[in-house]
Structure formats: C-alpha cells, structure tokens
Write a structure and sequence with these properties.
Layout: E1 2-9, E2 17-19, E3 30-36, E4 43-48, E5 51-60, H1 68-78, E6 85-95, E7 98-103, E8 112-116, E9 119-123, H2 126-132, H3 141-150, E10 163-165, E11 170-174, E12 178-182, H4 198-213, E13 221-224, H5 229-241, E14 245-251, H6 256-268, E15 272-276, H7 279-296, H8 306-316, E16 321-323, H9 328-332, H10 344-351, H11 357-363, H12 377-393, H13 399-423, E17 428-430, H14 436-442, H15 458-476, H16 478-481, H17 491-495, H18 501-509, H19 521-527, H20 529-533, H21 544-552, H22 558-573
Parallel strand pairs: 2-3, 13-14, 13-16, 14-15, 16-17
Antiparallel strand pairs: 1-3, 1-9, 4-5, 5-6, 6-7, 7-11, 8-9, 8-10, 11-12
Length: about 575
C-alpha cells in the first residue's frame, strides 16, 4: 500500500514539490511525500499541462474507459467522485494554487489532518504526521471513551487530540484555507414511498450484475464463498460472466462457512480454498497477527479480528484481488442486532426520541467502570452534548431510517474500514455491493434496510429483505439458486413463500444450532490469556483494579475486553 503526506502552509503561494525523504519537508512550505510498503503498491501518476495528479490504490472504472487519466481528471473537475468505484486516494495538484485530496467509496480509506496555525499536514496515516511534526501529541480521552462505548469513535476523532479524520463522503480542498466538501449524502435518497414487486426485484438483480462486471478483473481472483447470500451472489455473477476465479472462506473446522462451500464448490465444479482457523492458527498465529493488525490499522481494529489478517496473507500468495460480499447484508437488512457492529448504547441513543435519555444512557453504561472515570468528566459532558445535537438534528426521522444512515456514514468506514485498510497492504479487496449507483437504487425500494413493515415480524421481514439475493442468484446461476444456505433454506425457497413455512416453524420451536466460535476468537483468547495479561493497562486512562476484579469473576464481556487490550496495545507501542 502506498501512503502519502502533504505539507501545506496556508499563507504561502508556492507550488507543492515532491520530496523523497520526509525530513526534507521541514525546509519547504508546500511539499508532498510518498511512502511505499512491501506489497501491493498501486500507484499512478498523471501529468497535465497545469499540474500533476496521483492515484493511490485500486479505483474501479466503468467498463470501456480507454483514457483513465482523462476520466480521473473529469470526475475531479465535476466532483463526481461517486462515479468511480473501489478504494483509492486521488491527490490533485492541477488547480493552480489549490489541492484536492479525495478518498473513494465512503472514505473507507481515511484522510487524516493536523492543523496548527498556518501549517496543515494531510495524510493517509497518522504515523507520517507524527514523523513530520516536532510537537508531542496528546491522547484524546474522548476518543478512548467513544471507543469503549461504541466500539469505534462516534465523531471524527483519533487517538490524538491534534489529529482528526475527514468525514464520510467528503474530500478536502486546500488553498489559503482548508475545507471539507461533501460529495454524496445518503439522506437525499430516503423515500416515503419505496417501490416493491417482482419488476423492482428484477431491476435490482439486473443492476447488480451489470455493476458487478466492472469490479471483476481480467486476471484470476478469489471470491468469498460462505454459507450466506452475499458471497454466493458474487460467485453466481462470476460464473455467469465466465471469469477466471477461485473461491475461499475461513472459519473454524465446524463452521458452516467452511462446510457448505466445501461441498457446494465440488458440485459447481469450481476451485475452493478453505482457510481453517484450527489449532495451528490459534497457537502459532492468532496473537501475533492480532498485534500486527492493531499496528497496521493504527489501533482502530482489535485482537478479535486477527483472523482477517491471517486469511489475507494466505490469499495474497495466490491472487492479487479478492471479491467480497462486504456491506451487502448491511444494505438490505433492518439492523436490530446489538453487538460489535452496533453497541447497546448507540442503539438506544438512536432508538429513543427523548433527548434527555442520552445523558442516562452514557452515564449509566457499565463500560465506564473500566475507565479512570474522574479524568473523563469533561469528555463525558462533551460527548453527551454532541450526541444530543446529532439526535436533535434527526428527531423527526424514523429511528429505523436513522440507524440505516448511521450505518452508511459511520459503521461502514469505522467498523469495516480498518479491515479493508489492512487488506490493502497485501492485496485489493473489491466490494461490488458498496457502489453508489446500486445503493441509490436499493434505497428507493422496500427491500432496503432503512424501511421496515408497519407490523414488524422479524423472520418474515428478514425473508423480504433477502429477496434481492434470490433474484440476483436466479439471474446468474440456477445451480446455486437451489443450494442450501446456512440459514436453513435456499435462495429458491425465498421465491416460493410456501417453502419457507417449515424453516419459519423450525426457527420458532427449534432454534438453529449456531457454532459458538465460528472464527476461533474465543479459543484464541483462551490460548493467549498469558499474553494479554502481560499487556500493560495504562492506569492513567483505565481502572486496572476493576478490570482485574471483573476478569477474576468472569463479569466482563469479551468484546469490551478485546477493546481494552487492543487500545492499550496501541498506546504502549505506537502512541508514545
């Protein structure tokens, strides 16, 4: 992955110049620097009469684009960033004394900035900003508070008070001042009359397939093939397009994400690579991969997702590009599951229409017990005030719709983003579901996760919101259409509602027996307990006695514990 750092003195009229050594930035008023990692250094430089433009990462162009340089320049001039898919940065120095710094697709790739008087530093990583400044950075206590409460920052804070991150679907324009400019707003696509019916479902399927084609490369790639519907929609599209691909999935040996595709890939006569999170992974790799993941993602990921790095490294030895179903379920389903994606605190803040509830939700969260609460009073009050402003802004909006907008604006880049940033160090992850044109159309339909039926029956509502997958798979592969998913029914069953009666009854009287540890997270924790105990818990910010006491009594949930360990791993090794 290629990183960048831009130094920009606001009161200067000089044109920016490239330096090959970061130390040389100090001698110049406006300059930029690129840092190349060991693998996957995707980098393009385009020369124009009035300046240069750099593209870092893996932009996905519409089909039949011949002159990519002209197309990039055109979308930058029109600020039509949504016309370009994939994950990338564009650095545009072609507008006289201005510069534009752009991140594609929901700002999954973060843009960080530091400003002190007239000096502005902009980068793809806080590490380069830290190297370029003389001042010592301070830890942002409100970030730590938000991270523990919500699993990620609510606002645009980072570990450091002096460094912020650009908002989702915004880019930076900088000249004599710096501003964040929006290029897409999901709230504009909310409708009071979502359309539905067979024709709409067929339109979703047709648009999905047409859009997906541009994400499928001409070289061999790997498609995530799991027990769910997202991955098999992409397998079906790849089969229909006649592409050169293999499939993969990862999980513990008894996970349906392994057992189902292993069997079904044979029936489909497609190559399948299982990545088994077995004793070898648990004992030899899980802790070290967790440490590396935290370092790569600048503390934004946790030990609980170490298996993603392990799988990515294995896949990078085979293919340069993976196609994944990331974000698919989040577009279609009505999200009411409290957990790592949406914390209990954030769920209740969005669900409640009583602004005064926010203070109690925050102040009475048991997670605050694990912080050195006396030093956080200002931060707690500041967070409550920010949450009240946010909730008042959307007070007339249906909470289900607000949950959906929060998912698009915050969850995508803050929960899924670190994982995709990590993957970009080794290969490119292309995610066809995260496409603006597709999302805009989905949001106009009743199958979007922003809308729920007036009479809400969870499993019936789930069936309705899964219908688009059935139509996508039906369009692309009759064989996959009738294959069982890990939900207890096939996509074909969704097309014949009467076939869902038995699965629905079974779900009520005999709940599905889920594998308790499908990604070997708990097993890895048990194996690595002695390592975790050696992580120094910073007693300036955390209540060590409470953490240790609840550990002994087994009263601290694993997700909170993983965040405490992960935050302190970063504070100890990277933040000093």
């Amino acid at each position: 992955m290629v990183h960048f750092l831009i130094k920009w003195e606001l009161n200067s009229n000089s044109k920016p110049v490239q330096v090959k050594d970061i130390e040389n930035l100090s001698h110049l008023q406006r300059a930029y620097f690129f840092s190349f990692t060991e693998y996957n250094n995707l980098f393009e430089q385009y020369h124009f009469q009035n300046g240069e433009m750099f593209v870092l990462g893996d932009p996905v162009f519409p089909e039949n684009i011949i002159d990519k340089a002209f197309y990039i320049k055109d979308i930058c001039q029109r600020k039509a960033i949504k016309d370009l898919g994939g994950f990338f940065y564009i650095i545009d120095f072609t507008d006289n004394l201005s510069a534009f710094i752009i991140s594609g697709s929901f700002n999954i790739y973060p843009i960080y900035y530091y400003q002190k008087k007239n000096l502005v530093l902009i980068s793809s990583t806080t590490k380069l900003i830290k190297k370029a400044i003389q001042d010592e950075l301070s830890i942002d206590k409100q970030y730590l508070l938000e991270r523990l409460l919500f699993n990620y920052s609510f606002s645009n804070r980072t570990f450091f008070s002096e460094i912020k991150v650009v908002k989702s679907n915004h880019f930076i324009k900088i000249n004599e001042s710096m501003v964040e400019i929006p290029y897409w707003d999901p709230s504009l696509y909310i409708t009071t009359k979502p359309k539905k019916g067979q024709k709409v479902l067929e339109d979703i399927a047709n648009l999905f397939y047409k859009n997906t084609l541009k994400y499928l490369p001409n070289c061999q790639y790997a498609v995530s093939f799991t027990g769910g519907f997202d991955g098999r929609s992409l397998v079906a599209a790849s089969m229909h397009a006649g592409k050169n691909f293999i499939t993969y999935s990862f999980g513990s040996k008894d996970s349906s994400d392994l057992s189902l595709p292993l069997q079904q890939a044979k029936e489909l006569n497609i190559e399948y690579k299982p990545i088994i999170l077995d004793e070898t992974y648990i004992k030899k790799y899980s802790y070290n991969e967790g440490q590396e993941l935290i370092s790569i993602t600048e503390g934004n990921a946790s030990f609980a997702r170490a298996h993603y790095l392990y799988a990515t490294k294995m896949l990078s030895e085979i293919v340069p590009i993976i196609i994944t179903g990331n974000f698919g379920s989040e577009l279609f389903r009505v999200l009411y599951t409290i957990g790592v994606i949406l914390s209990s605190e954030m769920y209740h803040i969005i669900e409640s229409r009583d602004i005064d509830d926010i203070s109690n939700i925050i102040k009475y969260s048991h997670k605050l017990d694990y912080l050195n609460i006396d030093i956080y009073q200002n931060e707690i009050n500041s967070l409550i005030e920010e949450l009240m402003i946010y909730r008042k802004k959307y007070i007339e909006l249906d909470p289900t719709i607000l949950l959906y907008l929060f998912r698009l604006n915050e969850v995508f880049r803050k929960y899924f983003g670190p994982e995709i940033v990590m993957q970009s160090y080794f290969l490119s992850n292309r995610t066809p579901f995260l496409d603006y044109k597709l999302i805009e159309f989905i949001m106009s339909t009743a199958y979007c996760g922003a809308y729920r039926d007036s009479i809400y029956i969870p499993f019936l509502n789930n069936f309705k919101h899964q219908l688009p997958y059935a139509y996508i798979i039906k369009k692309c592969s009759n064989a996959l259409l009738k294959m069982m998913s890990n939900k207890g029914y096939s996509p074909y069953d969704l097309l014949k509602p009467w076939r869902l009666i038995i699965p629905a009854i079974n779900k009520k009287i005999k709940p599905h027996q889920y594998v308790l540890d499908p990604f070997s997270v708990v097993a890895s924790y048990e194996e690595n307990k002695h390592y975790y105990k050696n992580i120094n818990i910073n007693d300036i910010y955390f209540n060590n006695d409470k953490i240790n006491n609840d550990l002994l009594l087994n009263r601290i949930d694993k997700n909170t514990l993983f965040h405490i360990y992960s935050i302190n791993e970063y504070l100890n090794k990277e933040a000093n």
